[in-house]
């Protein structure tokens, strides 16, 4: 395959994957267990998730490494396995993808706050991202996807680390909430500020994921398109969340979510997929919609 940026330069659309956590839970992942450690303890189950998305039509799949920063792994006594867990996560997705899909290695927030709000220095956070992303690069990732970011400072540090320790394209997505003054991240960053900062940091692809359903994500991508000519990536949830007892439910049906795909693409998104609540059935419905659009 051509590299992912060359593919996107042709203005074609790539279908990504959906949620991973719930898919692992359906295979036995227990509450309180480290999902990323399954790369070492249950690699076949992790590969089943990747393969399910490939079979549904995904041409970009992520990795089971979202929470595999040294800081988060330390909560499970696994910090010394940071590089191993990340490298293995990429290897598993690469095996499932073979030559049919790109692997964008997932890097989520560290769960720590930068000084002076928190106790972590920029140097400490940079070193943590370097450690994680070095493992992803060793595994052979086609791209690094820094996702679900709210703090633009943390996102920019992650981008710098990715560019310093790997040679593959770096993508980044922010999570926004809609308020009286429009869409902003939890840390108060608006869409224009996010696009400007990520672009200056040197990302190749940027966009949004999580926090919103596909209708709201379409609005965010439309706004992002005003400020950048870079390819945009969109990973909406399967509708807006609702609480059912102590469970968070995302219940937008695959065929309903897929119905909004033309609008999302027309707004400027070139990589489309899903986040919380989305399943291989959602991706299959999106693939069918894209096929009907000859994309």
What proportion strand?
15-25%
- Put simply, the count of helices is 13
Number of strands: 12
Largest beta-sheet characterization: 8 strands, parallel
Low-confidence stretches: none
- How large, in whole angstroms, is the Cα Rg? 18 Å
Mean pLDDT: 96
Under the CATH scheme, which class? Answer: Alpha Beta
* Coarse structural class: alpha/beta
Shape: globular
Based on the model shown, name its key terms:
295 residues, alpha/beta, TIM Barrel, eight-stranded parallel β-sheet, 13 helices
Describe this structure in words.
The protein has a single domain (4-292), classed as Homocysteine-binding-like domain (TIM Barrel). The radius of gyration is 18 Å and the shape is globular. It contains 13 helices and twelve strands. The model has no long low-confidence stretch (mean pLDDT 96). It has an eight-stranded parallel beta sheet with strand order 1-12-9-8-5-4-3-2. The chain has a two-stranded antiparallel ribbon with strand order 6-7. The relative contact order is 0.13. The protein has helices at residues 4-9, 21-25, 38-41, 43-56, 70-74, 82-97, 122-139, 152-165, 191-201, 214-225, 254-259, 261-266, 280-292; strands at 14-15, 60-61, 102-107, 143-149, 170-174, 177-179, 182-184, 205-209, 232-235, 242-244, 247-249, 269-272. Helix 6 (82-97) packs parallel to helix 7 (122-139), helix 7 packs across helix 8 (152-165) and helix 8 runs parallel beside helix 9. It is α/β, with parallel strands linked by helices and 295 residues long. It starts with a helix and ends with a helix.
